[in-house]
Amino acid sequence: MKKNHYQWLFITLVSLVLILSLLTLAIGQIRFSISDLLNTLLFRGSQVQNYVLLNVRLPRLLIVFFSGVALALSGSLLQSISRNDLADPGIIGINAGAGLGVAIFFLMFVHQAKTFAYLLPLVAFLGGLFSALLIFILSYDKNKGIHPYKMILVGVGFSMAASGLMVLLITTAERDQVEFITNWLAGNVWGGDWPYVIVTLPVIILSIIYLAFQTQTLNIIQLGEHHAIGLGVHMKRKQLIYLVLATTLASMSVAVVGNIAFIGLLSPHIAKRMVGIRNQRFLVIAGLLGGSLMLMSDLLAKNMIEPNGIPTGILVSMIGAPYFIYLILKK
Amino acid sequence: MERISNISFSKKITIFFIVFFFSIVLSLKLGAADASYIDVFNAIFAPSKSDISLVLYEIRIPRIIAGILVGASLGMSGSIMQGVTRNPLADPGLLGVSAGATLLITLGHIFFTSLSYVGVLIFSFLGSLMGVTLVLSLGYFSHKKITTITLVLAGSAISAMLFALSQGLGLVFNVSKDVSMWTSGGLMGLTYNQVLIALPVVLLSGIFALFYAKELTAISLHEDVAISIGLSLQVTKLILYLLVALLTGIAVAMGGTLTFVGLMIPHISRFFVGYDYKKIIPTSLIIGGIFIVISDAIARVINAPYETPLIAIVSMVGLPFFIWIIKQKTGGSV
Predict the structure, then answer these.
(1) A195-205: per-residue pLDDT in tens?
(2) Dihedral of alpha carbons B313, B319, B320, B325, sign
(3) What's the total number of domains in chain A?
(4) Is residue B90 part of a domain?
(5) Would you call B330 and A149 a contact, using CB atoms and an 8 Å cutoff?
(6) Which of A104, A134, A156 should one mutate to test binding to chain B, selecting the residue with the greatest count of B CBs within 10 A?
(7) ipTM value of the model?
(8) Number of domains into which chain B is organized
C-alpha cells in the first residue's frame, strides 16, 4: 500500500513537471500551439519560433527547474545535518553569501554579465561556502555538534547584515550594475541563457548523483548522533561534506536565479509529510516538488504582469513565508 | 559591573549627555565639506551667510536632529518591545514591524500620487501597527507558548513576506523608486519641516512611555508580578504596543528600515542602568541618539565625498552584537 502510494505520487509529480514545462514553453509574449511546439522542437519551425523556443524558453526552463531541484535538495540536506526543520539555504544566509560573492565579483572585475558566465558558479560557490563555514563555526559546539537553533539565528542575522552590505555595494556601483543587483536581490531569473545552463547543470547533476549514493548514511544520521556514531558514521566529516554539498547546490541556483528563499524549506517538508522520512524516497519527491514549485512561480510571475512580469523570488516569498510561519507555530 | 552599578543614575545621565554633546559636535564637523570647530560654534549660535555656515545650518543640523530622532525612537521602541514581550531578541526591525511600515508606505504611494510627508508618517505608523499586530497574533494562533527564538524566526518570516509584498507592489505599480527614497535613503535630504513634525511626536512618546515605566518594569520582570500589584495588563500592553508602532513608524519614515538598532540599544542601556524602565527609557533615548549620530557621521566620512549607506554601517556593528547576544542567551544550550 505504502509502496503503491509512493509510485503514484512519483508519477503524478513527474507529469505535473511535464505539464508545467509545456506551459512554460508555450505561454508568453509569443504563444505556441501544441503542433507549433512539436514542430519547433523537431527543428521544423520558423526562424522566430526557433529562436524563441530554443534560445530563450528552453534554457530558462532548464535553469528554473533544476535550480528548484537544487534548492529543495540543499534544504533537505541542511535540515538533516542541523536536525532542524526550519533550515533553508535562503533563511540561514548561504544564498546571501553566494549573492555577495557574485555582486563583489561583478562590480570589481566584470562590466558585462555575459563575459563571466563560466566563472559565475565558482564565485557564487566561494561566497556561499564562506558564509556557510562562518555559520557552521559560529554555531558549532565542541561537545554537541551543530546547535540547531543557533545555526538558524546566526544565519538570519547573517543574511540581514549581508543585505546591508548589498546596499553598500549598490551605492558604489554604476547605474546598469545597480539594476543587476536589485534584480538579483528580488530573485529575478536572469541567467536563462545557454552558457549558464552548460556551466551550472553538470554541477547540479553530479551533486544529485553523489547525493543518491549517500541516502543510506543520511538515514542513519536521522536516527540521531549517538546512533550514527555507533553505526560507524564519522559525524563531523559527514556533516562538513553535506554542508559543502548543500552549499554547492544552493549557490549553483543562486548564481542563475538570484536570491530565492523558502523553496528549500517547503519542499522537504511537504515531501516528508507525503512519503515519510526515508531519504531514498523523500529526497526524490522533495526535488520534484522544488522543481515544480519553481516552475509554477516562474510561470505565474512571468505572465502575471505584462510585459516584464515580477521577479520570481517575490512570488516565492509570498507563498513561502506564510507556510514557514505556520510551521513555526505548529512545532 | 560592580563599579558601574555604584555610580548614581544622575551621574550616569550627565555623562551620557556629555558624550551625546560631543558626538553632535563631532558629527557637525565631519563630512564632505570640512568644518572647523569655530565654524560649528558659529553655525549654532550665530548663523552667517558664509558657505560652510550654510552647509552646516541647512544640511547638517537637520540631518543630525533627524539622526537623533531615529536613534531615540528605535532605542525606545526596542526597549519597550523587549520589555513587553520579555524577549531579549525583540527588535522592530527583526520582527517585521519596520517591514510593515515599508509595505504601507508603498501602498500610500500607490493610492496617492503625491504623498506629503505627514502622509508618509501616517502610513508608516499604520504599517508599524499592522506589523506589531501580526507579530502579536502569532501568540493566539500558536498551540504552544511562543519562545524567544520562535518569535524571532516567525518575525523574520513575516518581515520577508511583507518586504516581498511591498517589493512586488512597488514594481507592479511603478512606485519602487519613490518608496526606496524613503526606506533606504538614510538620513539624506531631510528638511527642517519634516524634522520638526517628527520631533514633538518622539518627545511626547518618550514622556508617555515614562508614565508607564513602572508597569513596564513589572511586566518585564514577570507577568504575575504585574498582575499581583494590580495592573490591568491588557490595556497597559495595548498602549505600550501603540507606542512601539508610533516610534518605529517615525523611525522608518525618517531613516528607513534599520535592523539591529532596536536590538542593541536596550541591551547597552540595561548594562549601564539596570532593569528599571524609568531609567532604561531615557537612557535608550540618549544612547540611541548617540549611536545613530555617530554612525551617520562615519557613513559620511568613510568614503567621502560619497555617502556610505547608514544601514551598511549599522549592520556591520549590529551583526556581531546580535551573534554575541545569541551566544549569551543560548550559552551552548537553549
Answers:
(1) 788 888 888 99
(2) positive
(3) 1
(4) yes
(5) yes
(6) A156
(7) 0.72
(8) 1
